[in-house]
Amino acid sequence: MWPARRGVYKWLTAAEAERFRVRRAELALGPLVVHDNYLINLASPDRATRTRSIQALSEELARALWIGADYLVLHPGNAGNAPLESAIAAIVEGLRRATRGLSLGELHILLENTAGQGSALGWRFEHLEAILRACPELPLGVCLDTAHTFAAGYDLSSETGLQRTLSEFAATIGFERLHVVHVNDSKAPAGSRVDRHEHIGRGKIGLENFRRFLNHPWIRDWPGRAFILETPVDRPGDDRRNLRTVWALFGQALPVRAGARDGFPARRISSAKRRTQKRAALRNT
Question: Can you tell me the distance from the alpha carbon of 175 to that of 166, in angstroms, rounded to the nearest whole number?
């Protein structure tokens, strides 16, 4: 997180990290994807900000390794008034410095494409490819966000547009480097370069276009690829309702726990609370 000396976060203890790894193994959860701090900006033209960002990213990587994460997702950064070439060079240098002294093992760093809002880099596939090409020694990959892709001007709203967008991704980056997909609809129109997420099917991309995207063989038929929602939570149960929509688009039903209502899981009552309720009922008889 943003620098440790400010006390913004509590460092994980060895016992906490071990409990996390054990519980994850018990539940057979994977892959494990973590997102870096949004304050990290490796492209910043301000030297102090870049130094803090490199330190913070190094700490994020160390924590990800400690809990056994598979992927750490990173926004490339905001260049301010800096030229594109120098901003990309700053990102490359920052990645190398942040990973220095770390044995990353199976952990991959994923560059997330952006909507291009403000001076954000990564809204063009070519930006990501330039960073990947400059760091062949690092385990880098890509996280593709559908809302960002759409807002950046890539067409997802028609069959021909989708094929053109995916073909461009294949030619520029390659689907073997796509490990995580952020599945989000967009409140903002195509090409607006505005980052605003919406519930699946309720935004400018639309339900049928999501069905086409999710079931495209280049997206669907890739073992181990993770699909993650970052949709709004306007009322309780929205996350589960969006999950149910995505599963339905894949042609599968979302497992529902007995007693769940409207996508919101049934509440579990603790043993102590159950005993209290029972005593109260007895007093009232």
Answer: 9
Question: Going residue by residue through the chain (285 aa), what tens digit of pLDDT does each one get?
Answer: 344 444 455 678 999 999 999 999 999 988 999 999 999 999 999 999 999 999 999 999 999 999 999 999 999 999 999 999 999 999 999 999 999 999 999 999 999 999 999 999 999 999 999 999 999 999 999 999 999 999 999 999 999 999 999 999 999 999 999 999 999 999 999 999 999 999 999 999 999 999 999 999 999 998 889 999 999 999 999 999 999 999 999 988 876 666 655 555 555 545 555 566 556 555 555
- Contact, 182 vs 230, CB < 8 A? yes
Q: What is the DSSP string of 148-182?
A: HHHHTT---SSHHHHHHHHHHHHHHT-GGGEEEEE
What's this model's pTM, rounded to 2 decimal places?
0.87
Domain that holds residue 40: 4-283
d(CA 273, CA 26): 28
As given in the structure block, the two tokens for residue 86 are 């120098």
Looking at the structure of the chain, the number of domains it has is 1
Strand partners for 173 = none
Residue 173: which CATH number?
3.20.20.150
CA 21 from centroid of its chain's CA atoms? 20
Q: How far apart are CA 28 and CA 245, in angstroms?
A: 24
